[in-house]
Amino acid sequence: MAESKKVTTAQANPAAIKKIDIFSNKRPGITVSIANGVVELRYYESVLQDSIMVTVNYADSGNTIEDERGIVVSAVEGLPIVGEEKVEFSIEDNNENVIDLTFLVNNVSPFNDNTTKGMVGLKFVSEEYELNEEVRVNKRFEEKPSDAVKRILTEFLQTKKEMDIEESTECITIPAQKKPFYALNWLCTRSAPANKPPGTTAGFFFFETSEGYHFKSIDFLFDQEEKKRIIYNETPDNRGADIPEGYDISALSYVKDNRVDVQRKKEAGFQTTRLITFDLWDCDYKIINPIAPKDLGGVEPLYDMGAKELPIMNKEIADKTNTLGIKFSRTTWVIRDTGALRPGSTQEQLEKSKEENLKVDKIKNQAILRFNQVYSSQIEITIPGDFSLHAGDAIYFDAPSAQMETKNDDIDRYAGGLYIISALCHLINPQGTFTKLNLVRDSFGRKGKAKTGKPAADTKIPGVKLSSQRTAPYDTITTF
Predict the structure, then answer these.
(1) CA–CA dist 179, 183 (Å, integer)
(2) Per-residue confidence at 61, pLDDT binned at 50, 70, 90?
């Protein structure tokens, strides 16, 4: 593991908003900086979100810029800001991690207006997010989903951003006349990792972070090494001096969010899904029964899990359904695409007319299962602002066990362990800088331990003393 820096409560001080420059569409060459007027900034990433997003509330005074008449007015009126203006954006946390991006204005919401000054809410999104509404994937092509993702991003969304795309197996024909993001998410449910045996697992996530676009399998996310090690122990970290050995961050807040609605999960098919297919080519009707989980008399899963075991359901209920010959909670109907239009010459299409594009036997059930397992266990934590973290990163988290005898100082071996960042929000306001993380995983029970690697390096921030120079604890800052 690469050397990491401790993130302490000292890093929860207000961070630097280095640049938010908005370029006028109507008046070429005219720009306005709103960085100094920002009251609150929120930056969002999520594995379920096609684009990164920023919301900004700022004070827009009436003496910001001259309009075309030479009268000094607000930025919204003078540029004017109506939507799709280019925004050059840069923020830096207190550990010198920088997010430096270009956005487009997606929404303008003035509020609290008066004659001299008003508050304005702006929403920024990626250029590809706006382009997606006006572009259609207007051709059919046959290739691996991972190759198709690259082509859609470069040919249709014309992105020049970095792309981190995991190789997938199976060739598939992309549906024509769909929006690019629709096609990309459609591919996620029909892709399986190339490094796993066919039919054992499936399911990918497509998402954007400040580092570019990602197309990653669920299995890859849970098989990666943790990026940060976080502990919640209800003890002030004394500006880093009291963060336990082996951890990088002491969380400011921690909430378990395992709101398991068994009925809804069963309806979604989180453990057993029956697949019924019909082939229009030869009228073949097939019922594909699911493989039962281990606790229901099945086999060990052939994929990597974030924790020790899958949720164990009531065996008596399982026995009763087995008696009735029912071993599934969801049925999915699929018309096989044998003979569907293929790309290429007429002769090439005829040669492949009896082939199936998507091998649903080895993809559909497995993808349904894995997507529904990902959110089996959820927690929400708040830490001092850390812009090095991204959606899709692995985090090792520990918290104390709830015991009557507190001197034991045991960790929670059920909720602790490896998690994936499902979504994050960086908040900057006059009170400080914080990062809220939604962490998820597909199973329960702490597996292994946080890899200590090299000791976390001391932070060096102007005005903040090193741990060896400190004598008094640092008060925990109220989080959002």
Answers:
(1) 6
(2) confident
